[in-house]
Amino acid sequence: MPKLEDLRLGHEPCDTPTGVTAKGLVVLTYHCPNLSVLHIHFQVATLSAPLVTAGMTSNAESTAPWRDYALRSLEVGEIPVPEESVLTVTLTLARIFPHIKFTYYLDENWGKVMDAISLSREIVDRSSKRPPPLPHTSEWPQ
Fold this sequence. Notes:
Elements: E1 6-8, H1 22-31, E2 37-39, H2 50-53, E3 73-77, H3 86-96, E4 102-105, H4 108-128
Parallel strand pairs: 1-2, 2-3, 3-4
């Protein structure tokens, strides 16, 4: 469904042991490049899988090539993020969904994930803007 923009699976994302894996999220967004809103259950534990953190494996049949996905809103509801997984979840979601800006969540650790994604985006934005060159002088500042 390449033109799909909004996908809502399930009544309300919740604390569930089942759901889409990280690999499934990558494949879903690959086949739906215009998807900007996703309301889904997914397995947070799979976000640390080598598939995602390494930026895809070489097995072309099991993974999709990298694209610049359109997803902006991820609704996760009650899906918990363990404290020790906040950084991994942050890095993985920022890699899969480079434009993600906000999410609907109930678990307080999702707030930490979204704060870290926002901070990393600010750092990248600032580093891409080169400051003006400093004037060259042989005098020491006073």
